[in-house]
Amino acid sequence: MPVTKETVRAVNRLTVRWAEAATAAAVGVAGAVGAVGAGPGNTVFSALGVWPLLAFLADGAHGPARAELADAVGLPAGGGGEGGPAARELLVALRRMPGLDSALGLWTKRTLELREAWEAGLPAEAHGVLTGDEDTDRGALDAWAARHTGGLVEGMPVVLEKDTELVLASALALRTRWPRPFNDFPLRVDHGPWQGRTLLGLSRTGTLLDRVGVADTPGGRVTELTVYGGNGIDVRLLLGEEGMTPGQVLAAGVGILDRRHPVLPGPRLPLGEVGPGVRVVRELSQTPDPPLLDVTTVAYDVAATHDLLDRPGVFGLTSASDDSEGHFPGISAQPLAVNSARQAAVARFDAEGFQAAAVSSFGVAAAGGIPRLRWRTTRVEATFDRPFGFLAVHRHSRLALAAGWVAEPLPFTWG
Fold first, then answer.
1. Which terminus, N or C, of the chain has the lesser number of Cβ atoms within 10 Å?
2. Please, are residues 38 and 29 in contact by the beta-carbon 8 Å criterion?
């Protein structure tokens, strides 16, 4: 079952909402998930990891909490609404995507009685038990997170308290390899935020000029480079005009993905400096060579954790996190409120490929001689040597799987 266009649009809209909020205060936290090279300003997140959880919560909510959650999900919730069924269909579709592993988990205390209709909407194998012993429960949840991300995320980002009755979580792990690897080299940057640094540079030359394009977006021009993966998962690198915020660049990337912004592709680019980091030149050549695309970028390894309750309005959690009353009668007769909502994510881009993972959780509590020159050839040079954004994308559906911002790339190490 393919992902519907409505669901893709809804998940991508949440990516934009999150990008505009998360990148404003992006802080990499290498210690949280064991990544190397994650520094201040780096971030990575997956709205895809959070969206189904919000949809399931909305399915069991009522009142203002249901309305706010449905707004964040972008589909109607509860009482015959579309959110819950769309989430279930999305989870089935994700399991069939090459290069992508996904899982959903639910843990409850034995004393919490769930509504049969709500529980039936979750995968049968998802349900586990919270014992109430924090060390035991923490060990089980961390093991689940590590197992379902191949160790990329080592722990469940959830706050466990004495009154935590339910934990709802998702795990995503994606991997792709470049059919043509990049060459790595020491990239010495002589301008901009990375001036004076020697970075782990990646370079590649090809003849497919349509892999790069320059888009006109509301916030300014954005250069997009698509790096195709061998299994249908691609990574789109996004370089905005200087002065554009990370949120503007990532939102523009989703707009390009959704075909809302006009893009001038590489074969149609005029000569000169035609976009951020892009230059088109005509050169003399010994042979009648085809046009060439030269790409220079950097390797990165970024990680971040996000507390969704720091910006509850983005995720429709304002009312749902008010513990003065219950908000989820469709989940249980016991009054429940969200007391924890977090995500831990990591992304790695190098000469060989890309991998990323995210674990999202909700805790619910009670309340890369001179020769003769006879011909001319065109060369498009695309250089990413200052902070840029990225989107990992499922090629067929155009679903954004993960997004992030690279402010601190990996350094080049000698030897």
1. C
2. yes
Q: pLDDT at position 82, please? A: 78
Same domain, 78 and 161: yes
Burial track 347-378 (b if 16+ CB lie within 10 A, e otherwise)? bbbbbebbbbbbbbbbbbbbebeeeeeeeeeb
Q: Give the chain's domain count.
A: 2
Q: Are residues 295 and 394 in the same domain?
A: yes
What are the Cα distances from residue 301, in Å, to 29, 149, 248, 322? 11, 16, 22, 36
Token pair of 414 as six digits: 């000698």
Query: Sign of the C-alpha dihedral, residues 7, 11, 12, 17?
Result: positive
Give yes or no for a contact between 46 and 318, defined as CB atoms under 8 angstroms apart.
Answer: no
For residue 240, the cross-strand partners are 222
d(CA 322, CA 338): 8
Check residue 126 and report its DSSP letter: G
Q: What is the pTM of this model?
A: 0.91
Is the distance from CB of 219 to CB of 249 less than 8 angstroms? Answer: yes
Cα distance between the two ends of the chain? 49
What CA–CA distance (Å, rounded) separates 62 from 169? 21
Pairing mode, if any, of strands 388-394 and 399-406?
Answer: antiparallel
What is the Cα 136 distance to its own chain's centre?
31
Gap between the Cα atoms of 115 and 332, Å rounded:
5
What pLDDT is stored for residue 81 in this prediction? 56
User: 187 and 170 in one domain?
Assistant: no
Angle, CA 125 vertex, CA 120 and CA 127 arms, to 5°: 70
- Per DSSP bridges, beta strands 212-217 and 263-265 are antiparallel
Question: What are the tens digits of pLDDT across the range 132-154?
Answer: 899 999 999 999 999 999 999 99
Local structure of 17: helix, strand or coil: helix
- Residue 102 CA to residue 178 CA, distance in Å, equals 22
**Which residue from 388, 218, 232 is spatially nearest to 302, judged by alpha carbons?**
388
| Residue closest to 344 by CA, chosen among 208, 207, 141, 162 | 141
Q: Give the 3-state secondary structure of residue 274.
A: strand
* CATH code: domain of residue 158: 3.30.497.10
For residue range 228-258, list pLDDT tens digits in order.
999 999 999 999 999 999 999 999 999 999 9
Higher pLDDT, 121 or 388: 388
